[in-house]
């Protein structure tokens, strides 16, 4: 399962999903082309985990830290594991 974050949506990951094989790609509620919002993430995540056999692994770059909503989503996915990749990210960071 691939859950792309902004500024991309599930459609932009079609090629990656095809290359990986048996992978689904979905937009989080309120992101990409989906309806809903962060208030729906907990129930959505529970339904996703129940309907998605196998492992759920979250990969995030340390330059794109998880938001409060992202941490709450992970809390709703107790079987998920997380990898943080040092030096990675897609969002610009303010220069100091």
TrEMBL record:
<keyword id="KW-0378">Hydrolase</keyword>
<protein>
    <submittedName>
        <fullName>Alpha/beta hydrolase family protein</fullName>
    </submittedName>
</protein>
<dbReference type="InterPro" id="IPR029058">
    <property type="entry name" value="AB_hydrolase_fold"/>
</dbReference>
<dbReference type="GO" id="GO:0016787">
    <property type="term" value="F:hydrolase activity"/>
</dbReference>
